[in-house]
Design brief:
By secondary structure, the chain is of the alpha/beta class. The protein has 8 helices and 5 strands. The chain has a 5-stranded parallel beta sheet with strand order 2-3-1-4-5, with helices on both faces. Helix 4 packs parallel to helix 5 and helix 6 crosses helix 7. It is globular, with a radius of gyration of 16 Å. The termini are close together. The structure holds BIS(adenosine)-5'-tetraphosphate.
């Protein structure tokens, strides 16, 4: 079972991925986390990534593609991955299909979390007081949401065409959303 969880930054992808990982015994591949790790390493690449993330823009497809290939090619994770925050652009979606195909895998379901900008601003301000993430700032949140709106439509259409897309109301409580996601995953026949 390979899953994509899709939605704007702050939609709750990381929160729900952690739930799915525990319940279904699979592995989370968060491109946001991988990029933040790279920043924390203080490398030259990390510094470059940091300035892009703090501007609310997307990091280049090449950088993110290299990070995810390492994960997909690892036999330990074969058919047990939740892609959290990847793909974000149509070219990333196509690249994901190519990489999975090269490693004899495929996607089983795409979960799209729908959340308004107002809700995201509220959540990010709350998270800022707990986690102190550098990109948790209202202005950056608005820019990130706009970037998402601009790049997400082709990705959504791509997954609509392949009949993998499932839209989830991300405005509900964390446990209500987890219940809905469980129902959708359990409805995929033949993967257990
Ligand atoms: P992300 O890593 O995706 O952003 P995030 O803010 O961590 O989003 P997430 O949806 O995981 O939110 P969370 O569960 O924490 O992206 C950050 C940046 O990385 C991007 O702007 C981009 O620059 C870069 N990037 C990442 N992937 C990339 C790619 N593929 N290509 C290029 N660039 C890329 O939830 C947010 C908060 O809300 C938490 O505090 C949580 O507790 C709370 N919350 C969650 N669900 C809730 C609910 N239902 N009710 C109330 N609160 C809730």
């Amino acid at each position: 079972m390979n899953i994509v969880i899709f939605g704007p930054p702050g939609a709750g992808k990381g929160t729900q991925s952690k739930f799915i990982v525990k319940k279904y015994n699979i592995y989370q591949l968060s491109t946001g986390d991988l990029l933040r790790n790279e920043i924390n390493n203080g490398s030259e690449l990390g510094n470059k990534i940091s300035s892009i993330m703090n501007s609310g823009e997307l990091v280049s497809d090449e950088i993110v593609g290299d990070l995810i290939e390492k994960f997909i090619s690892n036999e330990n994770y074969k058919n047990k991955i939740i892609f959290d925050g990847y793909p974000r652009t149509l070219s990333q979606a196509k690249n994901l299909d190519i990489l999975l195909n090269n490693h004899k895998q495929k996607l089983d379901i795409v979960l799209k979390l729908n959340v308004s900008l107002e809700t995201i601003k509220k959540r990010i301000l709350e998270r800022k007081s707990i986690e102190k993430r550098a990109d948790d700032d209202e202005k950056i949140a608005i820019k990130r949401f706009e970037t998402y709106e601009q790049s997400s439509e082709p990705v959504i259409n791509y997954y609509k065409q392949s009949k993998l897309l499932n839209v989830v109301n991300g405005e509900k409580s964390i446990s209500q959303i987890s219940d809905e996601i469980s129902r959708l995953i359990d409805s995929i026949k033949g993967w257990l």
